[in-house]
Recover the amino acids of this structure.
């Protein structure tokens, strides 16, 4: 995988998350412009970045999403829950693809088909599909079709005329089948005649010509380029199975104006320019066309000039001729006439790339743009009756619109139509202002160094130019301070530091050896001094790396607004989610393993806990139910509470259910306290739901929660009041990289017992040990504590010598207290716990191993599994 | 089979598929001045089109099918040998 792709993947995740979060907030507050801008920006940035890679399906889907968001942003659409659903599905899909990209470096095989389907779903919301596609394609950097000049001029002229006369927008379709396409049953050429809007087709060879004798008839070597007047969705549908080999680009009509022909044998023409400009200024299109026709008659049809004249005629023939285009054509013709040289093949009037429409091609023509604007000012100022005014303003609006298009500029959506409508109503003030603003901008664009206007920004509103591509200094500074690092690298660093911590522990042993074996006290002390320094540094390093690995719980909380929204929509329950303390941080491993348990808990709360709106009303509760996720730190533990204000758990119902399922006896059911009864739901296979729903109630949820939490050395407690709600509390260690264990000696070997399971250590005189049938017990503060001999449990050899006192480690395991008899109690130490690997991986009873300072391996016991 | 071969001429009958590619190639290779008659053709597979564009045989019958007449015939007419753009 390339570094670039890696960067893209990590950034894509951020953008996807922020877009999804924004969408959810937006659904609640659709009027928040800042939010919609934010979501739009995320999707837009993502789409732009995806263009760097060959991911057509992904880019297309994001493009569709961006279009929809763009329509919402410009108030052409109001966001509704269905749209949010579609957009969220889109983000989910893209995020699944990003995961796939990370794993395999490519999109899944069905990505293109899925992308087409989902894009269509998104586009179905759009009021006018074509309109949006064209507008966006103009702004998108991928929109270029530089081969338009190679299409026959006659085809281009026809398509141009049709479009200006109100026909569908034009698309440039380029299809390069791969060489094995015949084997897959594809027939590339025959797709094109199926397009009713096909206006021009160019068939060419994408490989050098092979002599017939060496030709492989099943090796596809052709490629196709077409000009199509048809909605994009229809074209995409036809090419849906080969869409990754097809590029579809919107073609603004003026980019077709590419006169071709011989520039060398240019005959000097009578001065056309002066007369033509005069007629154009006077809007004498008919007269100008006659003049052009006359010239054309006297010009060799193969010349560039003839071609240019034909195009000028086509521009003028439109129902509403575009003055800017015509003027540019006339200037170009005059130019060529004056200096007949240059690129004979295609001398474009308008560059096909919209972003290059600006300097030097058109903008330097300050007199032209300024003249047009001045002309419009004059027209606006002429008084007239309402009907004439209205028509005149429509003309002005069209002219200004065309001017903007040809300059690659834009004003705020709808602004132009609003102000011209005002002018038509007799209030030309704002229209004049706008034209003046444009005039100033033309001056600046010409006088200043070639500054590319950022076409998306509402430049006119502020009246200032944005220098595109220059991040503000604030942004730059921010970027410099954040370093993105692969998590695996941090993990490696942490492992190294952990090993350093362990190996520095060997220095005191070395000091002892220096003293005892080599008889050098001095040396021993020096080693100890050095050890103190290394110890401090190692501990600081450890703290620092722990800090790096700390993640806020918002990492896992983030997904819940979405989950709660989806489920509450599905179940028709009105639920508010409150998140408290999302800044609370814990080690990455802890945070990551929290996801599944929390999902189970929240689902349970929604499905089982929260009542239906009717039940809530009957119980006198507010209609909107509340689920709260709360995180906070307590000592060296992170506490996460999931609470709801639902119906709570009925201890009686639990007792009954457990008894019915044969999990407990009747006597035991009666003997249980309410709290103990509630805890029964953590037993495997327990579910009170009558029917298995889509959401939860499969009888695995709570069991999974408990085992997942216990795996990371956490505990779960549940409290509930019938009718008032339920709260589940997860207590988790802040970090699990370094574990504190108590060392014990059994049968001559050292074992570790995790400190969090150790309640206390006591010495019990032999005569105080009671024998109850075959088991032993002793009394600790008026409670009977069963005794278990770890030696027997581990199958170690029994020592023959009897001792006066038993060393007992009192452990608390899941609420019950057990006394473990060991040979000797040793000190507690910090160790880096490594899981058992290889052949030992499946061994029960051990949670892992740790290396001691003197090189010995310490096996750490898992008491829960052992007992 | 939709191709009908005579000594120096091949007629494309209605739908001509990729399966006709190999016989067509053999014919084009083994005939000195091959001639083609596309007039009854309604569907010309890309593989066949590709062969015709490589060998450029003389077209004695132009296709009646409007799509083929519009997009393919001009490429095969006399005097237009090159189509590489």
């Amino acid at each position: 995988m390339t570094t670039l792709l890696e960067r893209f993947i990590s950034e894509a995740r951020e953008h996807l998350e922020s877009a999804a979060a924004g969408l959810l907030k937006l659904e609640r507050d659709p009027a928040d412009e800042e939010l919609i801008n934010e979501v739009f920006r995320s999707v837009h940035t993502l789409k732009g970045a995806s263009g760097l890679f060959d991911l057509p399906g992904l880019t297309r889907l994001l493009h569709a999403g961006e279009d929809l968001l763009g329509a919402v942003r410009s108030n052409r659409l109001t966001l509704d829950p269905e749209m949010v659903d579609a957009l969220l599905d889109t983000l989910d899909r893209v995020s699944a693809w990003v995961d796939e990209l990370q794993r395999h470096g490519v999109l899944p095989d069905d990505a293109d088909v899925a992308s087409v389907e989902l894009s269509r779903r998104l586009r179905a919301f759009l009021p006018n599909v074509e309109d949006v596609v064209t507008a966006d394609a103009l702004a998108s950097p991928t929109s270029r079709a530089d081969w338009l000049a190679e299409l026959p001029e006659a085809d281009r002229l026809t398509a141009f005329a049709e479009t200006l006369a109100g026909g569908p927008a034009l698309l440039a379709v380029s299809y390069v089948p791969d060489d094995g396409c015949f084997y897959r049953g594809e027939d590339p050429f025959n797709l094109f005649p199926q397009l009713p809007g096909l206006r021009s087709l160019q068939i060419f060879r994408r490989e050098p010509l092979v002599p017939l004798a060496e030709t492989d008839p099943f090796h596809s070597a052709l490629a196709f380029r077409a000009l199509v007047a048809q909605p994009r969705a229809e074209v995409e549908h036809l090419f849906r199975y080969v869409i990754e080999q097809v590029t579809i680009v919107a073609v603004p009509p003026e980019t077709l104006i590419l006169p071709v022909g011989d520039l060398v044998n240019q005959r000097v023409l009578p001065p056309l320019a002066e007369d033509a400009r005069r007629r154009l200024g006077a809007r004498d299109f008919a007269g100008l066309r006659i003049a052009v026709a006359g010239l054309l008659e006297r010009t060799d049809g193969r010349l560039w000039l003839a071609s240019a004249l034909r195009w000028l005629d086509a521009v003028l023939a439109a129902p509403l001729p575009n003055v800017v285009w015509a003027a540019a054509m006339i200037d170009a013709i005059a130019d060529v006439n004056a200096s007949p040289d240059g690129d004979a093949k295609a001398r474009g009037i308008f560059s096909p790339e919209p972003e290059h429409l600006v300097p030097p091609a058109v903008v330097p023509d300050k007199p032209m743009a300024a003249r047009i604007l001045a002309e419009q000012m004059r027209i606006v100022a002429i008084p007239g009756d309402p009907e004439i005014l209205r028509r005149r303003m429509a003309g002005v609006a069209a002219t200004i619109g065309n001017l903007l298009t040809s300059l690659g500029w834009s004003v705020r959506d709808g602004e132009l139509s609003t102000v011209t409508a005002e002018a038509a109503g007799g209030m030309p003030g704002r229209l004049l202002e706008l034209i003046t603003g444009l005039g100033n901008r033309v001056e600046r664009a010409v006088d200043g160094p070639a500054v590319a206007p950022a076409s998306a920004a509402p430049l006119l509103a502020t009246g200032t130019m944005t220098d595109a591509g220059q991040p503000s200094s604030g942004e730059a500074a921010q970027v410099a301070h954040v370093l993105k690092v692969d998590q695996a690298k941090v993990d490696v660093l942490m492992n190294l530091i952990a090993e350093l911590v362990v190996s520095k522990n060997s220095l005191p042993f070395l000091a002892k050896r220096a003293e005892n074996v080599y008889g050098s006290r001095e040396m021993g002390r020096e080693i100890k001094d050095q050890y103190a320094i290394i110890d401090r540094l190692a501990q600081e390093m450890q703290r620092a790396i722990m800090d790096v690995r700390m993640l806020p719980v918002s990492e896992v909380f983030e997904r819940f607004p979405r989950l709660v929204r989806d489920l509450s929509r599905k179940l028709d329950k009105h639920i508010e989610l409150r998140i408290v303390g999302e800044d609370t941080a814990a080690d990455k491993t802890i945070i990551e393993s929290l996801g599944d348990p929390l999902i189970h808990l929240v689902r349970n709360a929604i499905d089982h806990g929260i009542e239906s709106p009717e039940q809530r009303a009957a119980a006198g509760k507010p209609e909107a139910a509340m689920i709260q996720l709360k995180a906070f730190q307590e000592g060296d533990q992170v506490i996460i509470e999931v609470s709801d204000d639902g119906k709570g758990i009925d201890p009686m119902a639990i007792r009954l259910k457990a008894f019915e399922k044969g999990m407990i006896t009747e006597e035991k059911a009666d003997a249980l306290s309410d709290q103990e009864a509630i805890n029964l739901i953590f037993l495997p296979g327990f579910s009170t739901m009558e029917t298995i729903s889509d959401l939860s109630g499969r009888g695995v949820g709570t069991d999974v929660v408990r085992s997942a939490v216990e795996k990371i050395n956490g505990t779960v407690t549940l409290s509930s009041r019938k009718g008032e709600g339920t709260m589940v509390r997860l207590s988790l260690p802040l970090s699990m990289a370094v574990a504190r264990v108590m060392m014990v000696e059994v049968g001559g070997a050292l074992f570790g017992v995790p400190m969090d399971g150790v309640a206390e250590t006591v010495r019990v005189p032999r005569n105080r040990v009671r024998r109850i049938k075959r088991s032993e017990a002793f009394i600790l503060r008026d409670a009977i504590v069963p005794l278990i001999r770890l030696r027997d449990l581990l199958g170690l050899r029994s020592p023959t010598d009897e001792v006066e006192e038993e060393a007992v480690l009192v452990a608390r395991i899941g609420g019950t207290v057990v006394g473990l008899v060991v040979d000797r109690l040793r000190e507690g130490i910090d160790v880096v716990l490594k899981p058992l690997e290889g052949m030992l991986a499946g061994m029960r009873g051990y949670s892992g191993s740790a290396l001691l300072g003197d090189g010995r391996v310490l096996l750490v016991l898992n008491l829960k599994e052992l007992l | 089979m939709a191709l009908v071969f005579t000594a120096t001429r091949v007629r494309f009958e209605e739908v001509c598929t990729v399966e006709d590619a190999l016989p067509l190639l053999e014919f084009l290779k083994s005939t000195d001045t091959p001639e083609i008659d596309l007039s009854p053709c309604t569907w010309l597979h890309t593989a066949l089109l590709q062969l015709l564009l490589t060998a450029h045989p003389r077209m004695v019958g132009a296709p009646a099918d409007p799509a083929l007449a519009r997009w393919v015939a001009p490429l095969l007419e006399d005097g237009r040998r090159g189509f590489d753009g």
